[in-house]
Amino acid sequence: MQASSECLPHRRCWFCTFALPKLTLSRDTVCMATTIYRDLEVLYTRQQIADRVAEMGARISNDLNGEKLVMVGVLKGAAIFLSDLARSIQADATFDFVAVSSYGKGQRSSGAVKLIKDLDEPIEGKNVLIVEDILDTGLTLAYLRKIFLQHHPRSLRIAALLDKPSRRLEKIEADYVGFSIPNLFVIGYGMDYAERYRNLPDICLMSPDHPE
Ligand code: IMP
Ligand code: MG
Question: Does any ligand 1 atom lie closer than 6 A to the CB of residue 134?
Answer without folding.
Answer: yes
